[in-house]
Design a protein that fits this description.
- With 538 residues, the protein is of the alpha/beta class.
- The chain has helices spanning 26-39, 53-58, 86-92, 107-114, 118-134, 146-152, 154-167, 183-193, 213-223, 244-253, 255-258, 267-270, 273-283, 306-313, 340-349, 359-373, 382-393, 445-455, 508-537; strands at residues 4-5, 7-10, 43-47, 68-74, 98-104, 138-144, 171-176, 202-206, 227-230, 261-262, 301-302, 331-332, 401-413, 419-431, 434-442, 468-476, 485-492, 498-505.
- Helices cover 39% and strands 21% of the residues.
- The strands form five sheets. Strands 2-3-4-5-6-7-8-9 form an eight-stranded parallel barrel, surrounded by seven helices. The protein has a three-stranded antiparallel sheet with strand order 13-14-15, covered by helices on one side.
- Helix 2 (53-58) links the parallel strand 3 and strand 4.
- 42% of the residues are buried.
- Residues 304-308 and 333-338 have low confidence and may be disordered.
């Protein structure tokens, strides 16, 4: 039996950016888009080009390889053509593959918020879609307040859908903008929409104000829509959006959906789900929700007792799916029964092949768990995991050792009498017996240490010329100024690859130095592996 195709549309970088306390930088957007590509979503909505400098620069070039790069904006304003509307033109002139235009579909909103007639609103919708199609863009229409609009005036709400489709829109997305619609209402209203549109051209965009965004999305799929919209970890305005980290494994793993639908996300990609979810939280500098479905640290955790006893006989007694299918792990609180399959998968990503009965695997597993108990988290720091694995397995080359380092911060007045802050770092490094000392000034101790470490690595200097520090995040683990600190550093090189390293210490400078040291070590491992590959090919 053939399956219907479901399309996954991610709006983390646009609708998710409306989350209180979240502000994405350009580097954040580039990094998150990379995570979404790893997951395998079909559309990545990056923001509103022309609305702010970050979004405008983000759309200066194509940021996706597989997913359709999508820009968001408004339909044209009344009284002018689409060709003379700067907002519409910013979208059409961007590097986006697709454009998603928000349109009012609730008659009350059209009259009160836009202060135009209902027919003028339809005209704006029609002309905007036609302009997008004529420019070669795939057009989507985001029907704002659709469910509330349908309840108030179903004929007009349906007229908006039909107008968009007749003008050439590929998708018409039904939005529960206020997040108050019940699943039974979603089923009923979508069924009515199917009288004017095939389900293969309908999408659902649900908000979580009643805690039912995932349920409403699944209800819409059952009723006939074939595109679902959501965000990583459910972030979004107010209570958030439908959580793709919950929706995707439900659609892919649960027979009720898996036997009827297919997505662009296969079993291999799904095994990265937990890592992607936690890496995203690390990017936001917040702790992952332990009880999150599928990916939470407690999702497959059981305390000792009759549950644990039953689990040891048959894992299905208290688990609805195998945890490794989403990259998570089983945790029985007394014995910590888990981990090997996850480690083998993670090791394979770094070209390290071990058998399940290799004794070193037990040692690595114990080391990871011991370090995690001290505050390390390798889900969002895969490069640090690679360095640790090589170290434990005895395969880490001795590139260089740090004899000592010093960082100082001084506030003083310069010759013009201006108050300035000067930061200096001194690092002594030994490479094959030769002692090298570097001094650098920077914008703070971390930047100064980074510059000093990379200033002179002897024979390895040429290998790290294209290495740069992209981002730096600090999290206090225990509270208070004397608490344990976790530092996450993001680096990249000329190949475009980005990686994350971690450091943990009561001293923030020491934690930062550890993360920087491992970033350089990973870069050297990476260049050495690339060199071996080149030699084999030659």
């Amino acid at each position: 039996m053939s399956k219907d195709r479901l399309y996954i549309f991610d709006t983390t970088l646009r609708d998710g950016a409306q989350t209180a306390g979240i502000e994405f930088s350009l580097e954040d957007k580039i990094s998150i888009a990379s995570l979404l590509e790893e997951l395998g979503v079909d559309y990545i909505e990056g923001g509103y080009p022309g609305a702010n400098p970050v979004d405008t620069e983000f759309f200066d070039q194509r940021r996706t390889k597989r997913a359709k790069f999508t820009a968001f904006g408004m339909t044209k304003r009344a009284g002018r053509s689409a060709a003379n509307d700067p907002g519409v033109q910013a979208l059409l002139n961007s590097r986006a593959d697709a454009t998603c235009f928000v349109a009012k579909t609730w008659d009350h909103q059209v009259k009160v918020a836009l202060e135009i007639t209902l027919e003028e609103n339809l005209e704006n919708l029609r002309d905007t879609v036609a302009a997008a199609v004529a420019s070669g863009k795939e057009a989507l229409i985001d029907c704002e307040h659709f469910f509330d609009g349908f309840k108030a005036n179903p004929d007009y709400a349906l007229a908006c859908v039909k107008t968009a489709l007749d003008a050439g829109a590929r998708w018409v997305v039904l939005c529960d903008t206020n997040g108050g619609t019940m699943p039974s209402e979603v089923t009923s209203i979508v069924s009515s929409v199917l009288t004017v549109s095939p389900g293969s051209r309908l999408g659902i965009h649900a908000h979580d104000d009643t805690g039912q965004a995932v349920a409403n999305t699944l209800a819409a799929v059952d009723a006939g829509v074939r595109q679902i919209q959501g965000t990583l970890n459910g972030i979004g305005e107010r209570c958030g959006n439908a959580n793709l980290i919950t929706l995707v494994p439900t659609l892919v793993l649960k027979p009720y959906y898996a036997e009827r639908f297919e997505t662009g996300i296969d079993a291999t990609r799904l095994q990265r789900l937990t890592q992607i979810s936690r890496a995203f939280d690390d990017r936001l500098n917040r702790a992952p929700f332990k009880q999150a479905p599928y990916v939470g640290a407690s999702a497959f955790a059981t305390k000792a007792g009759i549950h644990a006893s039953a689990l040891l006989k048959d894992f299905s007694t208290y688990e609805h799916i195998p945890p490794e299918s989403v990259g998570n792990e089983r945790s029985i609180m007394v014995s910590q029964q888990a981990g090997k399959s996850n480690l083998l998968t993670a090791l394979a990503r770094h070209g390290i092949e071990l058998s399940k009965d290799d004794r070193r695997l037990e040692k690595l597993l114990a080391t990871v768990k011991e370090r995690e108990s001290r505050g390390y988290s390798y889900d969002g720091a895969d490069a640090s995991f690679a360095v640790l694995a090589h170290e434990v397995l005895g395969t880490l080359p001795s590139y260089f050792t740090v004899e000592n380092y010093r960082a100082s911060v001084e506030r003083r007045h310069n010759a013009q009498g201006e108050e300035i802050t000067v930061t200096e770092a001194v690092v002594k490094i030994r490479v094959e017996g030769e002692l090298l000392m570097s001094v650098a000034e920077g914008n703070g101790p971390v930047n100064a240490l980074d510059l000093a470490m990379r200033k002179d690595l002897g024979k390895y200097s040429s290998r790290i010329e294209d290495l740069e520090l992209v981002d730096f995040k600090v999290r206090i683990l225990d509270g208070g100024t004397g608490a344990v600190t976790r530092v996450l550093v993001e680096s990249r090189d000329g190949s475009g690859e980005r990686w994350y390293t971690i450091g943990v210490s009561p001293n923030i400078i020491d934690a930062s130095f550890e993360a920087l040291y491992e970033s350089i070590t990973y870069k050297l491992l990476k260049t050495e592996a690339a060199q071996r590959t080149t030699e084999k090919v030659a």
